[in-house]
Amino acid sequence: MDAAKLVALIGTHPVDLMDREAQRIDRFHTGLDDAGWAAPTRCDAWDRRQLLAHLAAIEDYIRAGLDGTVAELFARSGADGHHDFNDWGVRQRDGLAPADLLAAWRAASEDNRRRLHDLPLESTVDTSVGPYPFVPQAYYLASELAIHADDAWVPVTAGERTGRTRWRSRFARVALAEADRGVTVEDVAGRLLVGLDGEAAAVDDADFLAATAGRLRPDHPLPPKLRAALVVLA
């Protein structure tokens, strides 16, 4: 799918979505006290301060993608894969006070989004898997911001919720198609029927998004093989 068609399908330019998610995260963290920063998140190993440190490390990755230096960034980290890279990025910010961490993340995020806004739709950026089309990459980044905002329990207003769920669900289906795992998704009577290899289950939008982010609750009845195949945005 070309970039313009993808933007038309999702309904909003991906960097505009990144703007919205970043602004929501910024507003929330600006108002946190010490206890709020230390509160646990859905990422078991990280409290809110550590999760924001991870978001700051993602900005390093975005900047490297814009500069064409992702391989150099990974080499400098000494990391063996994305998990190690994520942990390294958080450790680099262990000594920062919350207010300083927030200011550093904000500045990097604003600069990266300004640069992304300036890219033509058909541009490519550097990634850990090589050059990749800018538009879907920006949707992946917007999705990651949304997932981690939810991980930190950043509130979403009632007026925002419907549109936010819509674009995230639409892009999750694009990501599933790109992953090519054989998963089918159909709208049936207001729910989503997901299927794989003869197994199928109906889920609501919230559970579908949780499944694609690898955050579906353990006791959900979705079959294990289907649950695993749906994880494309974690």
Describe this structure as you would to a colleague.
The strands form two sheets. Strands 3-4-5 form a three-stranded antiparallel β-sheet. Helix 2 runs antiparallel to helix 7 (98-117), helix 2 runs parallel beside helix 8 (134-151) and helix 9 packs across helix 10 (205-212). The protein is mainly alpha-helical and 234 residues long. It has helices spanning 3-10, 14-30, 34-37, 48-67, 70-77, 82-91, 98-117, 134-151, 158-179, 205-212, 224-230, and strands at 124-125, 132-133, 184-188, 191-196, 199-203. 31% of the residues are buried. The protein contains eleven helices and five strands. It starts with a helix and ends with a helix.
Question: What is the topological layout?
Answer:
Blueprint lengths: L2 H8 L3 H17 L3 H4 L10 H20 L2 H8 L4 H10 L6 H20 L6 E2 L6 E2 H18 L6 H22 L4 E5 L2 E6 L2 E5 L1 H8 L11 H7 L4
Antiparallel strand pairs: 1-2, 3-4, 4-5
Helix pairs in contact: 2-7, 2-8, 4-6, 4-7, 9-10
Summarize, please.
With 234 residues, this protein is mostly helical.
Low-confidence stretches: none
**First and last CA, distance:** 22 Å
The portion of residues assigned to helices is 55-70%
Instruction: Calculate the mean pLDDT score and round it.
Output: 95
Q: C-alpha Rg, in Å?
A: 18 Å
**Alpha-beta classification:** mainly alpha
Largest β sheet strand count, sense and barrel closure: 3 strands, antiparallel
The geometry reads as globular
* Total count of strands: 5
The helix-strand sequence is HHHHHHHEEHHEEEHH
Which band does the percent of strand residues land in? 5-15%
The helix tally amounts to 11
Which sequence of strands runs across the widest sheet? Answer: 3-4-5
